[in-house]
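Internal QA ticket QA-208
Title: Verify multi-chain structure generation after dependency bump
Assignee: T.L.

Test input:
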Amino acid sequence: MTAIDDGVLQLDPEEARRARQQRLEEIGRWVLPLAIMILAIWSWDRICVWNGIPQYILPRPGVVLWTLYNDAGLLFSSLLVTLRITFLGLALAVIGGVGLSVLFAQSKWVEMSFFPFAIVLQVTPIVAIFPLINIYVNNQTAKLLLCAWIVAFFPILSNTTLGLNSVDRNLRDMFKLNGATRWQQLRYLRLPAAMPYFLGGLKIAGGLSLIGAVVAEFVAGTTGQSSGLASRIIEAGYRLNAPRLFAALLLISLTGILIFLVLSLISHLILRRWHESALKQER
Amino acid sequence: MGEELTLSRSSAAAGPSTLLALRGVGKVFSNGVTALSDVNLAIREGDFVSLLGPSGCGKSTALRLIAGLSTPTSGLLDWRDGGIVDRSNIGFVFQEPTLLPWASVFDNVWLPLRLKGISRAKAAPAVREMLARVHLTGFEDAVPRELSGGMKMRVSIARALVTKPRVLLMDEPFAALDEITRFKLNNDLLELWQDQRFTVVFVTHSVFESVFLSNRVVVMAARPGRVFDELAIGASYPRDEAFRTSPDYAALCRQTSSVLVNAINSTAGGDHDGH
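Actual output:
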């Protein structure tokens, strides 16, 4: 861009227009979403003020932030409880999902036989399963973990299975020609080849695990006692404490975004040297 | 499976220098397509044999049979010395470079040795020597996507040769490369072959490539895949750029082309796009 300003590089009108367009798009990518976000928050604030909406119906954004700051101790200790379930659930989903997909990859027959069970588990709403879990499982943490796990493990299982099965045919022949054992083929060929697929599944599972944990706390919160963020929301709802409700909601959203960003970063760091998906931004 | 290839020690028709004889080899796929029918072919130690023919003539199938990646429906593959039981005696180069995209050039070439349980440090001299031979010294740490098409193919060749195989099987390895790169790789391959004296079976659909490289060209015809004719390319080695522009080369190409045209016309229907 500086080259154009310096007059070192003479561009014809078409190229100059293209360069200008590109520069605008680059700025717009960051400025536009931010501007819209600020506009939305501003309108929210104005609607509250102009209509004289009471705080217990819809608090002004400033009040929500103030509550977040004031109740930080309470909310963040609850967030930690929820995060613990989320990450344990995610870790179990990774172990379970990858373990099962490796098992499935050993034989088409195993996959054909057991994959339908995974689908059944996936399509049944967790809220509907929870009462059963409530009956069969006594430990509160185990209940919540099971919920988070059921919600989060499927994308990892299905993506990793897909990855393990989509190894280049010639590469498989090459391993065969070199007398590779089953284990060597898994270790040096199929697992690395499945890595991009697994990481894609992990990104989805991270968000789902948080949702699973919160939903489980919700359902558990109405029956037993739990100290996660969901119970704060329920509690605030009963007390018509809308600012705290909004603050808790904001915290959950931010946590979800953070989890997604961290997992995206991990994925990028692992794949950046070789996988197409990590290369696109470079150009 | 390589074990199935150890069918016989007999070498009735084959001469003393024969490494592998295909006797009445046929292959019928489960969908009923006859890929190969009654193929008889003797490959001598040190040969550079090209299998030349239109698509669908079974040349790649023949290569897979020799590699042991597939078994013949009829006939037998007769390896001198009772068979190459150990697959490390065979190197295979695919049409695409077929590299591990996540592994460095060094690790890709190391792979065949690694699968035999040879550690990185122990394999390093052999890997480095092979990389030097394909002119890739200094690229050990690059990953495949950072290399050009020609360089990737060089890595693939280095990987096939790092185990010092007796036979190198190549399945249209340079078909996807531009002509300038292809010529260069042709020269380098010949150099390697003259240096290390392995036997090459080279599948191609290019008359020019087959004549430039090989001492024997086996012309194949389609439907069913079969050997149509065998030509000896008498020109002496080393062959270089001077040979490529010589009238001798042009004449040999012309002769080979006319045989290939006859082979294509011998197929009912004439077109060679189908299976």
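Spot checks passed. The interface with chain B takes residues 168, 170-171, 173-180, 184, 188-189, 192, 195, 273-275, 279 of chain A (CB under 8 Å).
Status: verified.
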